[in-house]
Amino acid sequence: MKRLLLALAFCLLPFAFCLLQAQPSALHNLLTRSAAEFPGKAGIWVKHLTTGETAGVRDGEIFNSASVIKIPVLVLAFQMADKGTINLDERITIRKEDIRGGSGIFRYHDAGLQPTFRDVLLQMVITSDNTATDLAIAKVGGVARVNAWLKEQGYADGQRLVQTTGELFAKYAALGPSAASPNERNAKTNSDRAYWLGEITPRGVGLMIEAIEKKTIASTAACNDMLRMMRAQQAGSRRLPHFITVPVAHKTGDFPPVLANDVGIIYSRSGPMVVSFLGNAITGNYGEAEDRIGRFAQQLVEYIDK
Prior knowledge:
Beta-lactamase
């Protein structure tokens, strides 16, 4: 009988181990709770680059990227600079027809301004400048080239540039009288991919940010330059950086009042963490939705540095 019980116990060990393995981690529970508390559809992916601890919620689902899709444009530009096919010190003349609405500062300058291409990329990141974005997209070869490059680099399943900001705004303008209706505009932003600047998954964009931090996607100098830009971020102060005191390098994506994304690297005391928090289809107060992202970052840092 003892031998039978012992044999049965050994047979059950693999099943017990599988059950233990199937239990959600504390990190996964934190992500699940934060996604449930967010007043909209939230997708989150986190990876601690020192320990390798990783968790995600809806991390493989497609979200409206808004301006987060500008990250691949940035990376492609720096790769091309590494190869010598783009000169970051080249002066770009901003003509009247280049000006785009929405976020950014170039639209407030007189036509004829001549920033360097590096300055153009900087504004695309830190003020999410749409004029800079379309100039950068054109410089790297256009929308089709960005998407071909994403496929070449192995990121096509998690990121796609749908169109330029100029094309996107033209589509909204073409809606006619209905464009004046917030409900119509918000419905397009939430569910019609033809009205998205880009498509991303939390994990897809997170893996690209990880490659920037690890200096594997471009030269060390180029990656350091990209991280410098992301650490100089001027938007999203109520999101990832809001309630924490450690440095953050990040890029936001916005379409108030229904979309608030923030992705980047939190430099916790225990090591850098890649964080992707995508918030789509927001209902209720937009500022409170942003604060939810900030509270998540605070809880994440408290958990990882405990």
